[in-house]
């Protein structure tokens, strides 16, 4: 059935002619293309845009390099009297924007091509084409008209995704692309096929589509410039909002969400935002929203986290945020050398453990819920609140781990040291645990069932675990590392003492006279419920929840009142399996459990050398392809991938070698 085009009385001037570049994307507005063209590459399958708008042979382009443009002239009015099979288009009289199945020289003619795949490359000569997600202002449909006007609707975001269609190898086809609102869309497609040996290979890509006049094209992203890694209280923060690509829109609104606030609040308008930094700004999340002429929000920046330096506690530096290897272990001759590596700034700094107070902020509160798997029962009962520095980095919190890369592989017996927790002095228990590949806990230390506890610490490795404290307050932990060199020389670090403070720093007591402190003794044997003996004076003080006691040293333990817990948001899960670079395109083997906003940063040593634009990735994606903002020279790099969803962020790293 033919749809009758509603002619526009006038057409606004087009800012960019078809085939011209917008930032680093080529704008395709008219002519023949095969938008989804699977090809085989070294690592498996990949998706390309087969651009036939050029003179001469078609050019294969990366989807990330292209903007598909649906002109204003593509607008159509749904007529009266359509068969019910066209109901997905909407009510008669409503507008849709259509790239048609039949070529219109004034519009983009977008199709499918699997002609670059050789016969026999896939079983049964078939492929599965899937639309995973649509991020945009309205629904999207793809449908075909048969020879007699019949309709085959194969992708429809209005009734839920993903949708899957079957296509043959070596085919070329066109169909109708329907968009229900003007604006910017991101379509995530994948194509999967089974090879003759029974293995599956897939290609994934995001396609960016703009519907409307290019004069109204918003920037691809906005970002915050000028944020320092951390601020002192009383300092002035001066931030600037920037468009990532050229756009006429400049109505920026600054939104801020601090701890305990349910929604972001608008705090300023304009391209700049300046404020005096207060303690309360620590861990506040800033975003910039860009609005159009009618005040509608076009897009938001990634969150920018404000970090306020915690200052000092007596002679100790307070570390509240960022990466820290609390045990930085090296083999120095026949002795173990243990320091604390502070990696929270631009450059790592080695410190002595007794020069640092490690801080678990109030934001580390974690509510134990009824649906927590029973194997996590060691953390407490449902309804109780603990404080946890998680194994997976969260930007607002301290991320403590350990590093034994200074102990060469093969230098110690069993390639491991004995890592022992001797004692925990504080108002509650400590559990140190990791999570295995199947989501279960691997308990390293649990002071609630008695100490000392011992676990292996692998040589020449870097690891993180979750540090869970049952109550707020001041803790003193004593560890030791022992082992034997492969030459038979015994190794012993001696006692290693670390201080943690859990809770609001406003309740942190004055620094004690450490010379007068009693030395805690290791717990001699396991007991069902640890109840450390307080010193004779003063009288033990009840903790805020009415249970347990404040123990050694009594002069400095000051538990923070437990705030009302809130249900934690679901944290995305991200796994990285491979990294490969071609030109500026970085392809990562990745699995995400939650639809997330993903950013990629590439570092060489401690210096950031390249990054990608933020993009939304579907939960079902098995690979991630991003374009870096600059080329990498030969060398070894660390790729850091952050996935943000539901207000939570997970970060993973993988090594990359460029030859």
TrEMBL record:
Keywords: Signal. Residues 519-543 have a biased composition (Pro residues). Residues 550-559 have a biased composition (Low complexity). Residues 1-23 form the signal peptide. InterPro entries: CHP03773_ABC_transptr-like (IPR022395), Surface-anchored_actinobac (IPR022435). Residues 510-569 are annotated as: Disordered. It comes from the Bacteria. NCBIfam families: anch_rpt_wall, choice_anch_M, P_ac_wall_RPT. This is TIGR03773 family transporter-associated surface protein.
């Amino acid at each position: 059935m033919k749809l009758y085009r509603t002619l526009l009385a006038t057409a606004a001037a087009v800012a960019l002619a078809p085939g011209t570049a917008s930032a680093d994307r080529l704008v395709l507005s008219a002519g023949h293309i095969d938008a989804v063209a699977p090809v085989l590459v070294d690592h498996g399958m990949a998706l390309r845009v087969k651009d036939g708008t050029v003179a001469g042979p078609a050019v294969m382009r990366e989807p990330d390099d292209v903007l598909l443009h649906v002109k204003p002239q593509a607008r159509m009015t749904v007529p009266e009297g359509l068969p019910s099979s066209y109901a997905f288009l909407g009510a008669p009289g409503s507008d849709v924007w259509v790239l048609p199945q039949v070529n219109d020289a004034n519009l983009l003619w977008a199709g499918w091509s699997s002609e670059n795949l050789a016969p026999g490359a896939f079983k049964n000569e078939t492929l599965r084409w899937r639309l995973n997600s649509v991020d945009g202002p309205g629904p999207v449909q793809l449908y075909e008209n048969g020879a007699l006007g019949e309709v085959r609707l194969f992708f429809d975001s209005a009734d839920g995704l993903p949708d899957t269609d079957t296509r043959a190898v070596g085919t070329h086809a066109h169909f109708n692309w329907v968009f229900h609102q003007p604006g910017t869309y991101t379509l995530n497609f994948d194509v999967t096929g089974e090879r003759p040996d029974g293995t599956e290979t897939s290609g994934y890509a995001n396609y960016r589509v703009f519907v409307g006049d290019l004069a109204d094209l918003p920037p691809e992203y906005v970002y915050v410039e000028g944020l320092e890694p951390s601020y002192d209280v009383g300092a002035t923060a001066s931030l600037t909002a920037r468009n990532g690509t050229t756009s006429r829109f400049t109505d920026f609104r600054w939104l801020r969400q601090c701890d305990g606030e349910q929604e972001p609040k608008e705090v300023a308008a304009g391209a700049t935002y300046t404020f005096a930094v207060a303690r309360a700004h620590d861990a506040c999340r800033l975003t910039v929203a860009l609005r159009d002429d009618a005040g509608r929000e076009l897009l938001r920046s990634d969150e920018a986290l404000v970090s306020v330096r915690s200052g000092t506690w007596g002679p100790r530096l307070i570390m509240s945020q960022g990466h820290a290897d609390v045990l930085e272990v090296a083999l120095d001759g026949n002795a173990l050398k243990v320091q604390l590596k502070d990696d929270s700034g631009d450059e790592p700094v080695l410190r002595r453990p007794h020069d640092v107070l490690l801080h678990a902020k109030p934001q580390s509160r974690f509510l134990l819920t009824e649906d927590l798997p029973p194997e996590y029962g060691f953390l407490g009962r449902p309804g109780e609140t603990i404080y946890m520095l998680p194994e997976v980095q969260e930007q607002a919190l301290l991320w403590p781990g350990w590093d034994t890369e200074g102990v060469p592989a093969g230098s110690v017996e069993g390639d491991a040291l004995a890592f022992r927790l001797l004692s925990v002095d504080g108002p509650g228990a400590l559990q140190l645990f990791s999570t295995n590949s199947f989501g279960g806990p691997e308990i390293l230390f649990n002071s609630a069932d008695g100490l000392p506890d011992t676990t292996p610490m692998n040589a020449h490795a870097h690891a993180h675990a979750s540090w869970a404290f049952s109550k707020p307050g001041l803790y003193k932990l004593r560890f030791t590392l022992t082992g034997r060199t492969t030459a038979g020389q015994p190794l012993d670090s001696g006692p290693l003492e670390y201080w943690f403070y859990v809770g609001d720093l406003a309740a942190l007591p004055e620094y004690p006279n450490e010379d007068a402190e009693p030395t805690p003794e290791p717990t001699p044997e396991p007991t069902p419920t640890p109840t450390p003996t307080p010193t004779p004076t003063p009288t033990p003080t009840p903790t805020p929840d009415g249970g347990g006691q404040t123990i050694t040293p009594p002069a400095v333990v000051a538990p923070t009142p437990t705030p009302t817990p809130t249900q934690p948001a679901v944290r995305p899960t991200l796994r990285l399996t491979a990294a490969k670079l071609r030109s500026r395109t970085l392809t990562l083997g990745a699995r995400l459990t939650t639809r997330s906003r993903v950013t990629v940063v590439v570092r060489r040593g401690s210096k950031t050398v390249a990054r990608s634009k933020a993009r939304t990735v579907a939960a079902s994606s098995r690979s991630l392809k991003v374009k870096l903002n600059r080329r990498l020279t030969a060398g070894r790099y660390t790729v850091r991938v952050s996935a943000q969803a539901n207000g939570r962020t997970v970060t993973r790293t993988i090594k990359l070698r460029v030859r």
